[in-house]
Predict the structure.
Amino acid sequence: MPVGMRCLDPSIADRITSLSATRNNDEIFETFGFSYNTLRKVSNGMPLRGSLADRIEERARRVFEADGHSSMSI
């Protein structure tokens, strides 16, 4: 894997992917702050820039906690 790149925690990637099946791209962007291309990378387990992965995991943690899913494995 290139330096500075990493994959999301698989449990977070799975939850984001499951949400993307029920929401449109604009809603995913507004919720998690990333594009369709990034969603495809997340869904396929591909590496992301470390700073982007950190930001997505932090936003996902807040979204899932707000929805009553406080047991994130980060």
Summary: The CA atoms of residues 5 and 49 lie 5 Å apart. The beta strands are 5-6, 48-49. Residues 5-66 form one domain.
